[in-house]
Specification:
Length: 530
């Protein structure tokens, strides 16, 4: 795939007071995808991005810089329900959170769109069904170069065609793991992954199958992120503009309160205003809620689009656990993220409730481990951590985080995010962890599994915001939702939200592909409207 052409200089500068047909706030999986989808319309489109371009530099692939020094983590400070400050794992760049993600592009299961009874609660149904999203999932997989193989996953929903690209080949140690899992009666499948890889023509492949994909920015621009496959192609159309370092502070409505008339922002500390016939918010679940709450006025005293008191509520981010399994056999794998297991996604014969998804993380090394836990590993020499990592298989297990109204985003007097969150659905998380550990005990050695949370500083708590969702759920009833079925605010005529905020539930798989598919779905609506 060729690099997108350079934009014209005028596309990267915007005059104070400029007006556009569409203003998109945020350039991640939702906003970046929407911009590309709308670009061929010829309409005048502006993308506002709080951050800057993530630099392509040697440090992109330096584990010490990325994991120990937090080179690309934002300086934001949020507060938990006790008022304690913490630094979220946020990344503000063109492309949003996708710059650092692992490009795992799962569809939600068909059952995720319907009411699911969990041991500890209910995952409510969506106002639309999987069949409404299926064509957009297909287009999303095409746009984001997803590799996979249909028919391997026993929970796979109906799909209208094959993956656009073949599955990524397993390396020998991972193929042995696949064989071992199958011998135990499981159905491991090729993880759906978005990378610009051509294994049949490798000298001409942009992706090199390196070990700097998951948690790193891609120095080669070979990871299917929203900068490379959303914003850059969008800027190939001369009607699209991008303003970086543009921190949106407030949305201002007309006197009736029914329409957003202007967007107030700061660029490099200087105030600016722009306007659009349509304004689309795509800042991430927490920051989108914050923006709407900070835009309160006399017509919307509790925050913009918040007559239902639902803005900020039902925040979700998954019950996740990263683990390393140690065995005598070395693991020389480089590109490890090629397996996933969903055999327990909806339960099993001994537990008739959903448990969740298992997949691989990027291959751990000693430097990454030290980055996760600088205090715990301070006295350990690097070689010992590297020796541990040489024998590690690295897993990510994820269970559904159930929506709860009291799990919510609010803002304090300074406009800082306060995240009131209480863990839920822990039985499913514990059962899934037990299924994996019991299985590996049978396959390999007993007492071989170490939770990476022993090393991880954040302990996969609310600072882990990579999978955040909820806060502006869509629905038919304005009394219980923020957005209508087209993701337009019930209370405003020209305000839309297209990030993962719209999701009523999060399922147990990565939400990125659902955000991309929904942006394409809303984009079709906006093309008809425009």
């Amino acid at each position: 795939m060729a690099i997108s052409p350079l934009p014209e200089a005028r596309q990267l500068e915007v005059a104070d007071g400029a007006h556009f047909d569409v203003v998109i706030i945020g350039s991640g999986a939702g906003g970046g995808t929407l911009a590309r989808h709308l670009a061929p319309s010829g309409k005048k489109i502006l993308i506002l991005e709080r951050g800057d371009w993530l630099p392509q530099e040697p440090e992109n692939w330096d584990a010490e810089e990325v994991f120990q020094k937090g080179r690309y983590v934002s300086k934001d400070i949020w507060y938990d329900k006790q008022g304690k400050a913490f630094q979220p794992g946020s990344h503000y760049f063109v492309g949003g959170a996708t710059k650092m993600y692992g490009a795992a592009h799962f569809r939600l299961r068909q059952q995720d769109f319907e009411e699911l009874v969990h041991f500890d609660g209910i995952s409510p149904s969506w106002p639309l069904r999987y069949s409404d999203f299926e064509p957009y999932y297909q287009r999303a997989e095409q746009m984001y170069h997803v590799h996979g193989l249909r028919g391997e996953d026993p929970t796979e929903p109906p799909c209208s065609s094959a993956y656009p690209h073949p599955p990524i080949a397993h390396e020998p140690r991972i193929q042995k793991l696949v064989d071992d899992l199958r011998s135990a009666g499981l159905h491991p499948f090729h993880a759906p992954t978005g990378v610009m890889l051509d294994e049949d023509n490798f000298p001409f492949s942009r992706c090199r199958k390196c070990n700097c994909c998951d948690g790193f920015p891609c120095l080669m621009h070979a990871k299917s992120d929203a900068e490379v496959l959303g914003v850059r192609p969008a800027l190939g159309a001369h009607n699209v503009s991008l303003l970086t370092r543009a921190h949106v502070k407030r949305l201002v409505t007309d006197p009736s309160g029914r329409s957003v008339k202007s967007v107030e922002l700061e660029r490099d500390g200087a105030p600016m205003t722009v306007s659009g016939d349509v304004v689309v918010v795509s800042c991430g679940a927490a920051n989108s809620a914050r923006l709407l709450l900070m835009s309160a006025n006399d017509k919307h005293p509790n925050g913009l689009a918040n007559g239902s008191d639902q803005v900020g509520r039902n925040y979700m981010f998954h019950n996740s656990k990263a683990m390393v399994a140690l065995s005598h056999e070395p693991n020389t794998t480089t590109f490890q993220k090629t397996i996933s297991v969903n055999d327990w996604y909806l339960g099993d014969a001994d537990f008739d409730y959903p448990m969740g998804n298992i997949q691989m993380t990027g291959k751990t090394n000693g430097t990454i481990m030290k980055g996760y836990a600088p205090l715990e590993t301070f006295l350990m020499p690097g070689w010992s951590m590297d020796k541990i990592a040489e024998h590690a298989l690295d897993f990510w297990i994820s269970s559904e985080d159930l929506p709860a109204a009291e799990n919510r985003v609010t803002v304090n007097g300074n406009g800082d995010i306060k995240l009131n969150y209480t863990l839920n659905n822990q039985t499913a998380a514990h059962r899934l962890y037990g299924r994996l550990t019991d299985l590996l005990d049978r396959l390999y050695l007993k007492n071989h599994l170490i939770e990476r949370q022993f090393y991880i500083k954040s302990d996969m708590n609310i600072a882990a915001v990579g999978h955040q969702a909820g806060t502006c759920r869509f629905g038919k009833d304005p009394a219980s939702s923020v957005l209508d079925l087209d993701c337009k605010a019930h209370e405003l005529d020209n305000l839309y939200v297209v990030d993962t905020s719209f999701m009523p539930t999060i399922g147990a798989v990565n939400p990125s592909l659902t955000a991309i598919a929904n942006a394409l779905r809303v984009g079709d609506h906006l093309l008809a409207r425009l």
